[in-house]
């Protein structure tokens, strides 16, 4: 799309945002799970800009950032990672990545771990628009800064999911089984 036209569209839609209320973080399935897992990235500080390397195709290299965490409860059987953009001009946040089957003994993920094919223990679910794997930040030009919420959830049992799964299926499987959670927020903007 022509950058000037995209910028005009972005400015026109600037006040329209999905909002935080539809984030996985606020789902009833996670109610009561304490915010006790510390989540960070060596690539960017909390509430700071995500480097272009981790931005989406056509904007950056679309490589998932490295993540580190601590404070996972001993009783955890599996970790889940969700990355969402609550500032998208849509009715619900855009799901940029969904990963399950992360072993609770792991203390992080290396750069690029959420790319397809994932292989190994991690299972990648369908994000928004049916995509699997990591889809980095790529907000509409002129729409302003977007927040990207990285959410990690510890479950007390392995999740029971079909081969192809989405966020709704993950949240349904987590209901009553979320032990703890943590989050990291990064930002990205295209002028």
Overview of this protein structure:
The protein is mostly beta strands. The chain has one domain (3-188): Alpha-Beta Complex (Phosphatidylethanolamine-binding Protein). It is 9% helix and 26% strand. The protein has 2 helices and 8 strands. It has helices at residues 3-12, 167-174; strands at 38-40, 67-70, 78-85, 94-102, 108-109, 123-124, 146-155, 178-188. A 5-stranded antiparallel beta sheet has the order 6-4-3-7-8, with helices on one face. Strands 1-2-5 form a 3-stranded antiparallel beta sheet, with no helix packed on it. A hairpin with an 8-residue loop joins strand 3 (78-85) and strand 4 (94-102). The radius of gyration is 16 Å and the shape is globular. The chain starts with a helix and ends with a strand.
């Amino acid at each position: 799309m022509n950058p000037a036209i995209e910028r005009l569209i972005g400015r026109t839609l600037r006040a329209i945002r999905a909002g935080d209320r539809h984030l996985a973080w606020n789902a009833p399935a996670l109610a009561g799970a304490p915010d006790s897992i510390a989540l960070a990235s060596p690539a960017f500080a909390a509430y700071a800009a995500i480097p272009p390397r981790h931005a989406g195709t056509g904007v950056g290299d679309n490589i998932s950032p490295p993540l580190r965490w601590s404070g996972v409860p001993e009783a955890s059987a599996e970790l889940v990672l969700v990355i969402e953009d609550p500032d998208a001009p849509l009715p619900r946040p855009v799901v940029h990545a969904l990963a399950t089957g992360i072993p609770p003994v792991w203390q992080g993920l290396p750069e690029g771990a959420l790319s397809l094919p994932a292989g190994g223990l991690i299972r990648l679910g369908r994000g928004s628009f049916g995509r699997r794997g990591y889809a980095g930040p790529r907000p509409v030009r002129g729409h302003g800064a977007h927040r990207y919420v990285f959410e990690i959830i510890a479950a007390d049992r392995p999740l029971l999911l079909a081969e192809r799964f989405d966020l709704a299926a993950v949240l349904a499987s987590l209901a009553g089984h979320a032990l703890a959670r943590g989050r990291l927020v990064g930002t990205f903007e295209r002028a």
